Amino acid sequence: MLSRLSRPKAVAVCALPVVALLATAAFAPLPFSVAQPGMTANVLGENKGAPVITISGAPTRTTTGQLRMTTIEATGPDTQVSLGDVVDGWFRTDRAVLPRDSVYPSGNSVKEIERHNTEQMKQSQDAATRAALKYLDLSDKKVKVTLKLADVGGPSAGLLFSLGIVDKLDGDGSGGDLTGGRTIAGTGTIDAAGKVGAVGGVALKTQAARRDGATVFLIPKAECSDAKAQLPKGLRLVPVTTLNGAVDALVALEKGKGSVPSC
C-alpha cells in the first residue's frame, strides 16, 4: 500500500538520489587527464648537465640564441581524476581537460605506456636526424648525431631536433644563426622526408614557451586556430609544414627580408 507524501517531503525524497549521485560523481575517478604547461629545453644547449645534440664526423659551429622544444605535463596514467578536477580545469586557461585515451594508449599499464613514449621519442629522434642530414645533403654514414633529452617522451620535439642539427652544422647557410640570437620555441613531429605533423596541446605549449622567454613559436600549420585561441601576449606564431619551410621562415625572420608566414 502506498501513502501520498506532502510536496515538501516528496521533493526531499526525490532529491536524495540526485545528491547521492552528485556526491559519488564528485569523488569517482573519471576517464580524463588534466594537463598544464610543461618544461621546455633548449636543444642547442644542455639538459640536466648533458648536451642535447652531439655531432661527430663534421665540423660544428658555436651558436647563439635558443631553440626550445616544449611539452605539456599531464596527470599520470594511473592518477585518479575527479569531477572537481575536471570542473577546475575547464575554468582555467592554464589547464586543459583531455580524454585519457588521447594522452595515453588505452588499456596499457604504466610501464607499457612509458615504454611506448620512449620508443616514440627514439623514432622521432631518428627521423629528425635523417631529415636534417638530408636537408644539408650530408650522409648519415659519415655524420653521427646523438640526441639526448632526459625524462621526455613522445614525438613532438622532432621539428626542433632537426632545426637544432641544421643550426649546429650550417646555421642560416651564410655564417649566421637560425635563431638570429632570439629565443625561439616550437613543436611538431617530423618524418624523414622533413614533413611536419600536428601534435596537440599547443595552447599550453605556447604558455610554456612564453614563460621561458620565447618571442617566436613555430607551429604545425594545421594547429594555428588552436594556438591563436589563447596566445600569450608577446609571442609570434610562425606556421610551418616542412623543415625547408621552417628554415626559410627563420632565415627571413633573422635577416628581416622575405616573407615570414603567420597564422
- Succession of helices and strands: HEEEEEHEHHEHEEEHEHEH
Strand content: 15-25%
* Rg calculated over all Cα atoms: 23 Å
Q: Give the averaged pLDDT, no decimals.
A: 85
SSE class? alpha/beta
Q: Class in CATH?
A: Alpha Beta
CATH topology: Ribosomal Protein S5, domain 2
CATH architectural group: 2-Layer Sandwich
Spatial gap, N to C terminus: 70 Å
Give a quick account of the main beta sheet: strands, pairing sense, barrel closure: 6 strands, mixed
Structure description:
This protein has helices spanning 7-27, 83-90, 100-103, 110-135, 158-169, 202-211, 224-229, 243-255, and strands at 32-42, 46-47, 50-51, 53-56, 66-74, 96-99, 144-147, 183-186, 189-190, 196-197, 216-220, 236-240. 38% of the residues lie in helices and 21% in strands. The strands form 4 sheets. A 6-stranded mixed sheet has the order 6-1-5-8-11-12. The protein is built from 8 helices and 12 strands. By secondary structure, the protein is an alpha/beta fold. It starts with 6 loop residues before the first helix and ends in an 8-residue tail after the last helix. The radius of gyration is 23 Å and the shape is globular. The chain has one domain (37-76, 109-255): Ribosomal Protein S5, domain 2. Helix 4 (110-135) packs parallel to helix 5 (158-169).
